[in-house]
Amino acid sequence: MTVQGWIQIALFTAAVFALTKPVGAYLYRVLETEERPLPSILGRLERLCLRLCGRTADDEQTWRAYAVSLLLFSIVGIAVTYGIQRLQGVLPLNPQGFGAVPHDLALNTAVSFTTNTNWQAYSGETTMSYLTQMVGLAWHNFVSAAAGLAVAVAVARGLTRRGGPEGGKTIGSFWADLIRSTVYVLLPVSIVVAVVFVAMGVPQTLSAYREVTTVEGAKQVLALGPVATQEAIKMLGTNGGGFFNANSAHPFENPTPVTNLIQMLLIFVLPTGLTWTYGKMARDQRQGWAIFGAMAALFLAGVATCYFAESHANTALAGLGVDQATGNLEGKEVRFGIANTALFATVTTDASCGAVNGMHDSFTPLGGLVPLLNIQLGEVVFGGVGAGLYGMLVFVVLSVFIAGLMVGRTPELLGKKIEAREMKLVTVYMAVFAFFVLVPAAWASAVGYGTSSLANQGPHGLSEILYATSSATGNNGSAFAGLSANTPFWNLLLAVAMFFGRFAMIVPVLAIAGSMVDKKTVAAGPGTFPTNGTLFTVLLIGIIVIVGALTFLPALGLGPILEHYVGAAGKVY
Amino acid sequence: MRNELVTAFRAAAVTLVLTGIAYPLLVTGIAQVAFPAQANGSLINDTTEPSVTMGSALIGQSFSDPAYVNPRPSAAGAGYDAAASSGSNLGPTSKALRDRVAADVARLVAANPNAPGEVPAELVTASGSGLDPHLSPASVAWQIPRIAAARGVAADRVRAVAAEFEQGRALGVLGEPRVNVLLLNLALDRRFGQPHLGASITPK
């Protein structure tokens, strides 16, 4: 570890902190007020889009209607992207002449991008036409993120709206939230960032790949394309699906340390801002900062562990006469070094982004444990766009409930009682995640058609499998990429995990919002456990770690933790 | 329900046109006008024959001649295949990784008899993209005795050229100090002439 490394991590953390309030205030203004920015441009665009959808902005929905709208929209999205991939051979903007994507891969990819996972069983530059990348994939980068923002705000409305004339049983309009998130937030920021990225070297062209003759006279084909536009929304929407196979490690996706910093900030900017938005909606900013505090503590613990681990030598190279003073460099780019790769890995898995600027599969056992565990904790450390906040609010409800049990009072959150129905829904949310991580992992580890995809043997093989099912169910999308996931078994298994990991978790969360919005607000009494202070932050961290550890520690013990010890003993497989 | 489905189709169409077509086309237009060099891949043309494109300033390429700075091992295709980016994805208890590194160390030690110290890890580890255009200054310095010998010039003269291509941290803080291998090798050719390629190149 170096001083410069820590300075970069500190600088990033400070920038995230500084952006939280302004971004949170902007999101509040867009989603919860009528004074939205640039009414003559963006306001017109918003109204035009809503009119073309056949909707007005004010048709409030119950949680059920909200969930139905989201599900229908997502299923249409899966169908469209599946169709584009199957037809790309006859569609325009296909200068490399790529043929139809096979059935299982097209389904996996369609589900992957619709669920904001961006798991990539394909290699972008050898599989997808420019049209598929732009229309089939980048489109979902926008709308899956907008849908996540919509759900987060709807859930916050459920918790914070007061009974009486203001609220009733509704939690907002899905279509208005979707369009507003896209038009006021995602689109304008993406346009600006994409142009900045081009200026810094990211290609943006519709021309074919370029063949060149290298200095030593060999042929080299440079894969190109509309990369910058994909890159901007890939990070801002915490999608993570790279234009190229190597994702943000590719010099065309992420050419300099400056683009790298911008990319990491883009991942965190909306999730952190949402904590402030939540505080504003709760009419108590400290509610938002308490959540922010828990997230920040878990983030710093993760990045410190990962940076520490990656600064150590790779045990596979021990005794070979290699100078490993810098740390573990396999799978890392020189321009980012150890610090920026460890930071990026932590950020991308704290959020449900899944972009990578180095190969997690080649991390040290403990360095690779950090991104894996981040995903398994539920990606609530700032988390995905929207998904981070609503996931965290589930943990908030659970924490309040456990605190209530400890003092023997009926638990309440923001003056609303937490009762049996909400707790059942919280349990469903937690159980769905654990089920779709562990059961598919167990299945794949036990059968030849699962393990034949492994690139690494021994404990690391189990880590590859566990990472894949965690990443899919957690809608992250990063990978221990040695796993050859483009087989019918893996494509279908992970498509199912991604689908349920998104929608079987969103529906109970919306149901919690629906049942909370309807409750009477009671004044805080002496038995009320305050959810806006340090004590609550500490309890919340404890609950997140305990739930994650109880669920996943046995599996982690057989994967990365075991590998750490056998690796230190000098064993290779 | 049927109404909702119609809305879902319409919303999909509206957002698809806006974000999947209008957005990338608008930015492509801006990029091609304002930053054509970057937007088309930061290509580098031969100084003597400007019609010949030799690569991209951002993408690494293979160099195996002893007169050139040799880059890191690459897992992209057969090596520095810029249409098949990839890392090795070999983990820290991988025998395949250990064997690959052992072979590379033996090769590098034999080719660099006067190199200072142990082999820098960078020179035997594959990057994440397989297209890493850079090396750290230390990894360049390690190869300079060999390059100087192959070109028949004093090592200090090669060092002076390499120093010109050292790139510091952005704003003094961000990233790691580095050297662009392709740009440095082109500069070495300009300064000391092109080596005779062919016989000395051993395919990887």
Describe this protein's structure.
- The complex is a heterodimer of chains A (573) and B (204).
- Chain A contains 18 helices and five strands.
- Chain A has helices at 3-32, 39-52, 63-87, 103-114, 124-127, 130-160, 174-199, 227-236, 257-281, 285-310, 337-350, 365-376, 387-407, 420-446, 448-451, 459-473, 488-517, 534-568, and strands spanning 210-213, 219-222, 322-323, 412-413, 416-417.
- In chain A, the strands form two sheets. In chain A, strands 1-2 form a two-stranded antiparallel sheet. In chain A, strands 4-5 form a two-stranded antiparallel sheet.
- The two termini of chain A are 28 Å apart.
- The model of chain A has no long low-confidence stretch (mean pLDDT 95).
- By secondary structure, chain B is mainly alpha-helical.
- Chain B folds into two domains: 2-37; 42-192, no CATH class.
- Chain B contains six helices and six strands.
- Chain B has helices at residues 2-34, 36-39, 95-111, 137-151, 155-164, 181-192, and strands at 43-45, 53-56, 119-120, 134-135, 166-167, 178-180.
- The radius of gyration of chain B is 22 Å and the shape is extended.
- The model of chain B is unreliable at 199-204 (pLDDT under 50).
- At the A-B interface, helix 1, helix 3, helix 6, helix 7 and strand 1 of A face helix 1, strand 2, helix 3, strand 3 and strand 4 of B.
- Strand 3 of chain A pairs parallel with strand 3 (119-120) of chain B, so a sheet runs across the interface.
